[in-house]
């Protein structure tokens, strides 16, 4: 049986005049229904890796297979229907919120399920939102959730989530996390989710990928990773993140 996704020695360089290595030797296998948290310091290439996985960017070296078939042999549009990227700062299509939800269905010739749209809006804390409102007028957090719902409704086999709760308050971030966890359980959807929130990473994921030292340095079951990381770099990263969370949330004024 082939893996859902198989990454072999992926390497990415950045820059136009001088090429700098962003990461190299990224090796990983992903199974159906797995929930993966992708963590690591800023600038390690987490978003770039997600964009490569959805063929919005390309690797400079290495191989990537979906169910045993190389990305080189797939139509990128077909690939993206199966493995869909949800951006941190999503682009809204022209028109209303409802137009945004319906339009992707007509583009992909998939019937629109109004009851599902309503359920997902309610479950993500948007039950009071007027869906006739212009999508461009939404707040950052509303846009994030509409973009997420828009992608979920097309039922890709894997969702690539790029800090999709970063603009939400903690209560709404929790709602979205619960929704995605249940969705993954019920639909068998694989989640690969970049987050800087280690509490969130620990609660939703089954596996953690830690990006550091210009590669995917660790990939482990989440409980094991957080209790006994293999590398000193990951240990330091976890400790520093916990320390910064403990900092006084509202320093006293002098
Ligand atoms: N196409 C590109 N051309 C030039 N630089 C790029 C390109 N794509 C990414 N980069 C650079 O690569 C680095 C890694 O970016 P990326 O957003 O993937 O990191 P990240 O780990 O997701 O960071 P953060 O946690 O801050 O979101 C950044 O310095 C970014 O500017």
TrEMBL record:
Every copy of the ABC transporter domain together lies at: 5-238
Tell me what this protein is called. ATP-binding cassette domain-containing protein
InterPro entries the UniProt entry points to: AAA+_ATPase, ABC_transporter-like_ATP-bd, ABC_transporter-like_CS, P-loop_NTPase
Q: Check the record and name the SUPFAM superfamilies matching this protein.
A: P-loop containing nucleoside triphosphate hydrolases (SSF52540)
Write out the entry's keywords from A to Z.
Answer: ATP-binding, Nucleotide-binding, Transport
Q: What Pfam families does the database record attribute to this sequence?
A: ABC_tran
Task: Write down the superkingdom of origin.
Answer: Bacteria
The GO molecular function terms of this record are:
ATP binding
């Amino acid at each position: 049986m082939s893996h859902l996704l198989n990454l072999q020695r992926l390497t990415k360089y950045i820059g136009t005049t001088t090429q700098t290595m962003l990461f190299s030797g990224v090796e990983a296998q992903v199974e159906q229904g797995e929930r993966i948290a992708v963590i690591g310091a800023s600038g390690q290439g987490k978003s770039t890796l997600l964009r490569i996985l959805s063929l919005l960017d390309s690797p400079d070296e290495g191989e990537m297979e979906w169910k045993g078939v190389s990305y080189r042999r797939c139509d990128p549009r077909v690939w993206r229907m199966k493995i869909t990227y949800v951006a941190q700062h999503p682009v809204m299509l022209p028109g209303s919120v409802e137009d945004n939800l319906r339009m992707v269905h007509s583009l992909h010739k998939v019937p629109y399920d109004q009851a599902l749209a309503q359920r997902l809006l309610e479950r993500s804390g948007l039950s009071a939102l007027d869906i006739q409102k212009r999508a461009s007028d939404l707040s950052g957090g509303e846009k994030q959730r509409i973009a997420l719902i828009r992608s979920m409704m097309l039922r890709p086999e894997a969702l690539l989530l790029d800090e999709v709760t970063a603009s939400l308050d903690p209560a709404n971030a929790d709602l979205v996390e619960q929704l995605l966890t249940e969705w993954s359980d019920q639909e068998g959807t694989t989640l690969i989710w970049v987050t800087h929130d280690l509490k969130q990473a620990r609660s939703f994921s089954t596996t953690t990928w830690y990006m550091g030292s210009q590669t995917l340095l660790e990939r482990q079951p989440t409980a094991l990773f957080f209790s006994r990381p293999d590398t000193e770099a990951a240990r330091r990263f976890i400790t520093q993140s916990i320390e910064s969370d403990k900092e006084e949330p509202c320093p006293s004024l002098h």
